[in-house]
Each structure stands twice: as structure tokens, then as C-alpha cells.
Design goal:
By secondary structure, the protein is mainly alpha-helical. It is 59% helix and 3% strand.
């Protein structure tokens, strides 16, 4: 029943939280651009196929599945689990840090755009936004 998406574009913002880096790592730059630029929601099965999620379970199986995974992680050797996580993360930390900084700068510019005001207003009014009314913050910015 779950869907996944990057809806930032729909209110005049760029994705943040490291998603420009992380989603690109998972699905590749072309698909990441498509998902972020359109704000398209994808169903759970598509998220699984793309590698965005590890598994898909029926709603009634969710709690039991989560409990099994939590139990396995809780009973694992914690130092080894911590070092495993650190080793897998170490390769990406610098690139993620750069992406977070770039996103913060881009998001700040988006916050000051007329399109952001229109996007939020349209969202609150439950209507489709009409972007481009004010000064444009184009791709060259």
C-alpha cells in the first residue's frame, strides 16, 4: 500500500536531506532526476525493483516482519554490527557531506523564490501550482 516519492518540486523546492546524493546512488542519475524533477510517487513494488526499499510485505505482516528484523539486529554482536555500518558508510561520507552543503545552498535560494511561495500557497489551497509568475530562478542559477 505504501508509495514513495520526492515531492519537493511540487512546492518549488529542490530535494534535500542528502536525497540528491542518496537516491542517485540507489537508482542512477537519470532515474533519480526523473523522480525528483516530476515528484512522481512510485508504488512499493517499483521501489523494490529500483532498490529504494529492501523488501515489500503485506500490511498485516509489517509488524511481525519489523519485529523479526529488530530481533536479529538486537541479538547481533554490536561492535561488529557498528563496524560493518561504519565500513559501508565510510566510502560515501565525503560525497554526502558535499551534497548536503550544495542542497542547503540550493534550498536557501528556492525559499526566496516566488515559485516557493506559489507552491506552498497552492498546497494549502489544495490546487495545482502555477509556477513562473515572478522572477525565474532558472537552471543557470
Amino acid at each position: 500500500e505504501a508509495t514513495f516519492g520526492q515531492g519537493f518540486i511540487k512546492i518549488g523546492l529542490m530535494p534535500d536531506g542528502g536525497s540528491t546524493f542518496l537516491l542517485t546512488q540507489l537508482v542512477g542519475p537519470r532515474k533519480a532526476f526523473e523522480l525528483m524533477a516530476t515528484g512522481e510517487q512510485i508504488p512499493a513494488e517499483e521501489a523494490l525493483r529500483l532498490g529504494v526499499v529492501n523488501r515489500v510485505v503485506e500490511s498485516e505482516e509489517l509488524d511481525a516482519t519489523v519485529n523479526r528484523l529488530v530481533g536479529a539486529l538486537a541479538s547481533a554482536a554490536q561492535p561488529a554490527l557498528g563496524k560493518l555500518k561504519a565500513a559501508l558508510s565510510a566510502q560515501s561520507i565525503a560525497a554526502l557531506s558535499d551534497a548536503l552543503e550544495f542542497e542547503a545552498e540550493g534550498q536557501q535560494a528556492c525559499f526566496h523564490s516566488p515559485d516557493f511561495l506559489e507552491g506552498v500557497t497552492a498546497f494549502m489551497q489544495k490546487r495545482k501550482p502555477v509556477f513562473g509568475k515572478g522572477a525565474r530562478g532558472g537552471a543557470a542559477d
